[in-house]
């Protein structure tokens, strides 16, 4: 390490920092160039000097490895000689043993056989001892080789550690030397840059001053020339303007004369040409109009014939189509009546099934309540030692009655009869006239009669359908607004059903609880609609504005039913209907209770 430090010290270059003049700075720049040339030589010598300890370790390790390989080769040769000698000796002994066995076959007496056998055993024991001795020698040599290998490994590890230490020292010294050389070079370059900067600044100032003086002289000369040129240009411009004005006046006068003459010639020529063109156009237009009128008359006649034939064919098609449509209409009406009957049947069956399920569930609940009361009595009397009183059980709020049915639509057979009569009255409209005009008039009369019959039939059907739809909407709104009168269990059971199923069941339960019969259902719907009309007549404009500006959520929820009756008027209308039309049934306590509840809700809404 000390030798490496000395080598590094030799590479260092001391610098003196002091203020010197330009000449001294130039000399230092020359010295810096020489130092730059000497730096690679010093670095290479330092690298060679530092790599020698590492290479010495490597050469020593290589020499040791070559010696080890020679020793291993000699040991291998010795082992081979041992093995060859052992093979020869064992072969000889084996031959003796085989000869002894062949000689033992010639022996006859047991004593001779025993002696031959003992001799053979001794030879075999000697052969086995020799083999064991050889094995022991080989194992001993193997153990020695293993010990030597472990020692070599340890020594290699030590050499590697030493090599790593020397390499780290080498790297450290090289980095230190590189840093010092780099710092020295930076200082030299900075000094050179300072010197060059000072000299360049002086030269730049001198050149700028010289250039500035030359530019000033050029500007003065240019100003003089510009003034001279401006005076010349001004004089020339005045001369050219005078000349151009004179020439322009002469040209304009000549041009006006020529233009006047040309316009006179063009006017005469134009008048003659227009007269000729007008005469020619009149002749051509007359010819064209005559040809157009003839062709148009022919085309209109052909078009008239086509229209008459098309009209007759369309009339026939409309007749056949109207007959088919009337048949389809009859069939649809019959199908609708069958569907209404099936709906009524299933509604009654569903209501009956619901009543049965309700009663069975109520009976099960009553049994469970009895069991719970018995258990409570035993706990109070046996375990707590208290007197037990049977609590009052509430009565069932549900009394199974006939479920309310939706009103039957008017029999649509009347529509069929009216349609048939209208179709029969149309049979005498066509007459057997000769010309196409009379046929067209007969066809028009038939078509008009069929259209009026179909229109009346469709109007009757639409009015009936509209009445049924309005009644259904009013009933749905009534069920929605009076949902608080229904049982929670009923609402939970109806929640997973579709839209039409819960409405019919809710309506049946509501009407049965209020005591309204099936025959009174159309009266109730008409009363609700008339009540809405009365309320709208009585209410003032301010109330209408307040109703319109009510919450947007309620208006969106009853968008389809708000035109029929306002949701806030449903409960008062129901109350007034029950008071007017159900006076004979007010003795029922459940109905009175429902009326009181409706009255309380109306008061809260107000």
UniProtKB/TrEMBL annotation:
<dbReference type="InterPro" id="IPR039750">
    <property type="entry name" value="DRC1/DRC2"/>
</dbReference>
<keyword id="KW-0966">Cell projection</keyword>
<dbReference type="Pfam" id="PF14772">
    <property type="entry name" value="NYD-SP28"/>
</dbReference>
<keyword id="KW-0282">Flagellum</keyword>
<protein>
    <recommendedName>
        <fullName>Dynein regulatory complex protein 1/2 N-terminal domain-containing protein</fullName>
    </recommendedName>
</protein>
<keyword id="KW-0969">Cilium</keyword>
<feature type="compositionally biased region" description="Polar residues">
    <location>
        <begin position="411"/>
        <end position="432"/>
    </location>
</feature>
<keyword id="KW-0175">Coiled coil</keyword>
<dbReference type="GO" id="GO:0003352">
    <property type="term" value="P:regulation of cilium movement"/>
</dbReference>
<feature type="domain" description="Dynein regulatory complex protein 1/2 N-terminal">
    <location>
        <begin position="60"/>
        <end position="159"/>
    </location>
</feature>
<feature type="region of interest" description="Disordered">
    <location>
        <begin position="391"/>
        <end position="467"/>
    </location>
</feature>
<feature type="coiled-coil region">
    <location>
        <begin position="128"/>
        <end position="239"/>
    </location>
</feature>
<dbReference type="InterPro" id="IPR039505">
    <property type="entry name" value="DRC1/2_N"/>
</dbReference>
<feature type="compositionally biased region" description="Polar residues">
    <location>
        <begin position="7"/>
        <end position="17"/>
    </location>
</feature>
<dbReference type="GO" id="GO:0070286">
    <property type="term" value="P:axonemal dynein complex assembly"/>
</dbReference>
<dbReference type="GO" id="GO:0005858">
    <property type="term" value="C:axonemal dynein complex"/>
</dbReference>
<dbReference type="GO" id="GO:0060285">
    <property type="term" value="P:cilium-dependent cell motility"/>
</dbReference>
<feature type="region of interest" description="Disordered">
    <location>
        <begin position="1"/>
        <end position="42"/>
    </location>
</feature>
